[in-house]
Known about the structure:
This protein is α+β, with helices and mostly antiparallel strands. The chain has 2 domains: about 10-100 and about 160-235, no CATH class; about 100-150 and about 235-285, no CATH class. The protein has 11 helices and 7 strands. It has helices spanning about 10, 60-65, 65-70, 105-120, 130-135, 155-170, 185-190, 205-220, 240-255, 255-260, 270-275; strands spanning about 30-35, 45-50, 70-75, 175-180, 220-225, 230-235, 280-285. Strands 1-2-4-3-5-6-7 form a 7-stranded mixed sheet, sandwiched between helices. Helix 4 (about 105-120) crosses helix 9 (about 240-255) and helix 7 packs antiparallel against helix 8. It is globular, with a radius of gyration of 19 Å. The relative contact order is 0.16.
Amino acid sequence: MIAHPPLPAEVQVLFVDGDAVGRTLSVPLPPGQAVVSDEGNGDGPVLWLSARSPESGLWARLRAEHGRSGLWPLLLQAHDVDDDEFRPWGAGELFPAGMSKPQGHDPAALLAGWWADHTTVAEDVDMLPPAERLAVTAPYGRDWPGLAPSADRGNDPDRVADDLADELLAVFSKLRLGLVAADRGSDALTVAGWVGPLNHTNDTAEISAVVADWERRFGVRVVGVGFATLDLSVAAPPTTHEQALAVAAEHFAFCPDNVWQGREPCTLTAYAERLVGERSWSFWWD
């Protein structure tokens, strides 16, 4: 049996009540530091942040170590690529104390409620006539179609996630590595106190609950997180337009800006066409 060294001291502080005991990490880390929330809750650091962009393949090695380390890796992007503070991560604009627990939420109920909110026609503020407004979510209109069925998983979720990590590093030159003490990637969003979807929900645990359900149904993995963006790998994407339309409805409920402010035409049907066979899902909240 190979003996692995314990967690580095600057990473051990991510675990409370001595939970780091017995955890190991054989992968060398680049220079970095633990980040404390600027809300001053006194609970200690919420994540570890590298000082520079990680090398290709490091995310995958850390992901493979998650079972021993209890640390989920994230590729983090700043609000502004030239921001020396690397907001929100380096500036500590992270608020875990204000979050509930992901396990306390029903993903199906959350999505149904958000769908109802986003398909309600508010004639006093809506810029579109009611008929055009409801045409955006055709063929469903205001009728919530329910959760999309689980898809057949023909790909290894971890391998697909590793590939997306390398793709993100190739596209974005100033990503940094984050490590969060979380049981899985979906939980890491809440544990870190990320508030990117603040204009959609002020409780990131709700976002984590839905993503956790996608982890189960579609082999999703959390890979990249920005100021208000989220990049997920998908091992079991929809393979037909019918399947994709049901998934698109969930995406609209989860992040309506993906459709409202996405590529034209800004309709659920057009958005669904882009989901067929797509192994990554990206979200952006205005």
